[in-house]
Design a protein that fits this description.
CATH class of chain A: Alpha Beta
Structural class of chain B: alpha/beta
Number of helices of chain B: 11
Structural class of chain A: alpha/beta
Helix content of chain B: 25-40%
Order of helices and strands of chain A: EHHHEHHHEHEEEHEHEHHH
Oligomer: heterodimer
Radius of gyration of chain A: 20 Å
CATH architecture of the largest domain in chain B: 3-Layer(aba) Sandwich
CATH topology of chain A: Rossmann fold
Strand order of the largest sheet of chain B: 3-2-4-5-7-6-12
CATH architecture of chain A: 3-Layer(aba) Sandwich
Helix content of chain A: 40-55%
CATH class of the largest domain in chain B: Alpha Beta
Number of domains of chain B: 2
Shape of chain A: globular
Strand order of the largest sheet of chain A: 1-7-8-4-3-2
Largest sheet of chain B: 7 strands, mixed
Shape of chain B: globular
Number of domains of chain A: 1
Radius of gyration of chain B: 19 Å
Strand content of chain A: 5-15%
Distance between the termini of chain A: 49 Å
Number of strands of chain A: 8
Number of strands of chain B: 14
CATH superfamily of the largest domain in chain B: Thiamin diphosphate (ThDP)-binding fold, Pyr/PP domains
CATH topology of the largest domain in chain B: Rossmann fold
Number of helices of chain A: 12
Strand content of chain B: 15-25%
């Protein structure tokens, strides 16, 4: 029995105007999606070249979901993106070269080599670094929202999880606490249909993960995560409702993980027909088509943006490769924080 | 100075820090309307209101996790595990998230987890434990285990002001039983500075928390036979004051390490190993550990008494070492 609302797709430019996006915003979304995919494609090449230690994870197919939500956040909102959400880091303005430095374990990586791959965040941009134990950051995001509520600040926390992670107790405790206190938090579930090799049917017994929201006293919405504009519209509505004191929302963004769990995984267990169906719904291609239909983008501008993105990525990789590796002497720095570190705008 | 119970001292520290700093807030189960299972926060809801004294659902993971988030946003959360035993439900939030956040990405997590701990009341396997050992193994966390009312206040004040996640173990058996002089107003006790609870010359007992008093009774008992026991109260397990322990070993050359936690991989093992590494030449006898045995803590009084280190156990260890 499905109880969540299924979001109707955005159809026209008029729809989008209502959601506060102008022409430049629309192009910026496009550019951020291209950068997101470009970072992960370049990262994969660097990985194969042996320049990235450990493993490598991508979010191919999730670019629209990630960029759509992040675009709906305001500057002083905060979020806890997970490993398929490179688009959130990009849309919030994370420096691209530092992302490559992060991948390569360099001193200028966002974790300065202390942690790798997507376990990163630029805190100055309101992002909190994920841990592997998903969705452990859901309760953390709820705590951010609790701080905003206590201080009567008009800010919102966005808590990400995946379809797999929604089976963990952290998800339940976080959504329950948020529901009890009507906290300004929006829960985003990137449902890419697979938790490593485990399909949705082995993960949950409800029709939609968003159905669970009703059990916590707030609305759940199922959204086509390959449609960046619908994602944006629903995220914008949920975030602004939270800001206005209307409490949490759970948005389930349905996509398909177009690559393996990590690069070692060929995802043989994902049916070919499903991959083909979602290849036709590629979020970037889909959005590009729409921009052209709406006369927001023409061939010339498209080429310009692609050239610009390519240059950004080239420069970023070059600069990251020039970043030094961390010194072994840095091993023990930062295990504990020092009192003066609390003397920041956030902590004062 | 005023004479206070250990429990009043904890309550005072919380109240004074909340009055001083509007960023400090409390969250936990039954801490508001009910005033806490042990009444540590009685009257707090009335004074500070429901924004700062939050009755939480039964959700240790969300309690600790939300404190991490609030701390990152500049608050100074203090949460309560109703019994320290229940911190196992929040292990991941402490060990995986809070403890490693600063090392990984440089963002401090200034928060306190209050943990009523310890046995002696037939609380059984789930209301009596001393789980500090699990967390002492985790870099990034700090651990305080006050024994006296003055330290209960001073260490909690420091814990709230510390830029790191701090586990503050308050021993339930000390709450109303132990009274002592507590400085009025601001009182801060630095972490990592042990306290010599009792001066002595023949033998050192290194301990913390409620076992300080067990050691004291044993020291009184053997003093009648002319044995002079020094008691070093660590006050904090992370960081711990190696130098104070080594200084006392240099003085007495015989050491008992005493704790209420179980034996194998208990924090006493770390103390004993450090003494072996750094003070081997100064020892006149092997280091002796007096701890609870490697078993869950049982319910029935005779079993629980057999489990918890008793004065007689410490006396026996002192006599064994004295004769060595």
């Amino acid at each position: 029995m499905a109880v969540a609302r299924e979001a109707t797709p955005v159809s026209s430019a008029a729809d989008i105007k209502q959601a506060d996006l102008d022409r430049e915003d629309l192009l910026s979304i496009y550019r951020n999606m291209l950068i997101t995919r470009g970072i992960e494609e370049r990262g994969h090449i660097l990985y194969r070249q042996g320049k990235i230690p450990g493993s490598f994870y991508t979010g191919r197919g999730n670019e629209g979901a990630a960029v759509g939500v992040a675009t709906a956040m305001r500057t002083d909102d905060v979020g806890t993106p997970i490993q398929r959400d490179m688009g959130v880091h990009v849309a919030r303005g994370t420096e691209t070269w530092r992302i490559f430095a992060q991948y390569m374990g360099r001193a200028d990586g966002l974790a300065a080599g202390k942690d790798g791959n997507v376990h990163m965040a630029d805190f100055r941009l309101g992002l909190i670094a994920m841990v592997s134990h998903l969705p452990a950051l859901m309760p953390v995001a709820v705590g951010c929202a609790l701080a905003f509520k206590i201080r009567r600040e008009p800010r919102v926390a966005v808590a990400w999880s995946g379809d797999g992670a929604m089976a963990r107790g952290d998800a339940h405790e976080a959504m329950n606490l948020a529901g009890v206190h009507r906290l300004p938090v929006v829960f985003i579930c990137d449902n890419n249909q697979y938790a490593y090799s485990t399909p949705n049917r082995s993960e949950f017994g409800v029709d939609h993960l968003a159905d669970r929201a009703a059990a916590y006293g707030f609305e759940g919405v199922v959204v086509d995560g390959t449609d960046v504009l619908t994602v944006y519209r629903e995220a914008h509505a949920a975030i602004e409702r939270a800001r206005a004191g209307g409490g949490p929302t759970l948005l389930e963004l349905v996509t398909l993980r177009m690559e393996g769990h990590a690069v070692h995984d060929d995802a043989f267990y994902v049916p070919r027909e499903l991959l083909e169906a979602y290849a036709k719904k590629d979020p970037i291609e889909r959005y590009r088509r729409w921009l052209k239909e709406q006369n927001v983008l023409d061939e010339v501008r498209d080429d310009e943006i692609n050239v610009e993105v390519k240059k950004l990525l080239n420069d970023a990789v070059k600069r990251a490769e020039e970043s030094p590796l961390p010194e072994p002497a840095d091993l023990l720095t930062g295990v504990y924080a020092e009192p003066e570190e609390l003397d920041t705008p956030h902590h004062r | 100075m005023a004479t206070k119970t250990y429990l009043q001292a904890i309550s005072d520290a919380l109240r004074e820090e909340m009055r001083r700093d509007s960023r400090v807030f409390l969250i936990g189960e039954d801490i508001g309307v009910y005033g806490g299972a042990f009444k540590v926060t009685q009257g707090f809801l009335q004074e500070f209101g429901e924004d700062r004294v939050i009755d939480s659902p039964l959700s240790e993971t969300a309690i600790v996790g939300s404190c991490t988030g609030a701390a990152l946003m500049g608050m100074r959360p203090v949460c309560e595990m109703q019994f320290s035993d229940f911190v196992s439900c929040a292990f991941d939030q402490l060990v995986t998230v809070a403890a490693k956040q600063h090392y990984r990405v440089g963002t401090p997590v200034p928060m306190v987890v209050r943990l009523p701990s310890g046995g002696g009341f037939s609380g059984g396997p789930f209301h009596s434990q001393n789980p500090e050992g699990y967390f002492a193994h985790c870099p990034g966390l700090k651990i305080a285990c006050p024994a006296t009312p003055a330290d209960a206040k001073g260490l909690l004040t420091q814990a709230i002001r510390d830029p790191n996640p701090v586990l503050y173990f308050e021993h339930k058996h000390l709450y109303r039983r132990i009274k002592g002089e507590v400085p009025d107003g601001e009182h801060v006790v630095e972490f990592g500075k042990a306290r010599v609870h009792r001066e002595g010359t023949d033998l050192t007992v290194v301990t913390y928390g409620a076992m300080v008093y067990t050691a004291e009774e044993a020291a009184d008992a053997v003093s009648k036979d002319g044995t002079s026991v020094e008691i070093v109260d660590l006050r904090t397990v992370t960081p711990w004051d190696r130098q104070a322990v080594l200084d006392s070993v240099a003085k007495t050359s015989k050491v008992i390490v005493l704790h209420e936690d179980t034996h194998t991989s208990g924090f006493g093992a770390e103390i004993a190993a450090t003494i072996a590494e750094e003070a081997f030449e100064q020892l006149d006898a092997p280091v002796v550990r007096v701890t609870a045995p490697d078993a869950p803590i049982p319910f029935s009084p005779p079993l629980e008494k057999a489990f918890l280190p008793q004065v007689a156990d410490v006396v026996a260890a002192i006599e064994k070492l004295s004769a060595y």
